[in-house]
Amino acid sequence: MSSRFMAQHLKMNNALRRAHEKRDDIDFAYREIASKIRKEEWERFYTKCEWGIPDLRRLLGEDFDPEETPIIAPGHDHASMWIDKEGDLVYCYQPYKMGFRAQQELVALCDKLGLEATIDSEASWYLPGRTFLVVIRKRRK
Q1: For residues 91 and 62, what is the distance between their CA atoms, to the nearest angstrom?
Q2: Are the C-beta atoms of residues 128 and 28 closer than 8 Å to each other?
């Protein structure tokens, strides 16, 4: 190897080491920017509902009764409700993890209520890279 290549390699190696030592700062900066970009992208297609407590019954056209316990999705974390461009209501949440049992429960709940769910590891705006986005909507015919 040439000495010029070795010098470049050493510089790159040192820069990566410094970045690794500062990885928490780099991760934070990435998540902060990615969060804003992803939420802006989401908001191009969805409008947030300001109803308070998310409840899957709303997807079925039922009103929320504050006296009743809301029906929430398995693994529910950082949940909100939105209206898409077609006027359809969606329930979304952004969990850190979702075990196999919770996934099975989600499928069973969707089947029972006539809903469908999608899981996207690259669309979550709540701590991107640490959470993923689950979107539930009324099953399309």
Answers
A1: 14
A2: no
Local structure of residue 71 (DSSP, 8 states): P
d(CA 121, CA 132): 4
Q: Where are the domains of the chain?
A: 3-138
Q: What is the pLDDT along the chain (141 residues), one digit of tens a residue?
A: 678 778 888 888 887 788 777 777 778 888 899 999 999 999 999 999 987 789 999 999 988 788 888 899 999 999 999 999 999 999 999 999 999 999 999 999 999 999 999 999 999 999 998 999 999 999 987
Q: Which of 92, 84, 86, 99 is nearest to 118 (CA)?
A: 92
Query: Using an 8 Å Cβ cutoff, are 115 and 109 in contact?
Result: yes
- What secondary structure does DSSP assign to 91-117, as a single string? EEE--S---HHHHHHHHHHHHHHTEEE
Residue of 113, 112, 101 lying closest to 74 (CA atoms): 101
Structural tokens at position 93: 């949440």
What angle do the packed helices 3-21 and 23-43 form, to 10 degrees? Answer: 70
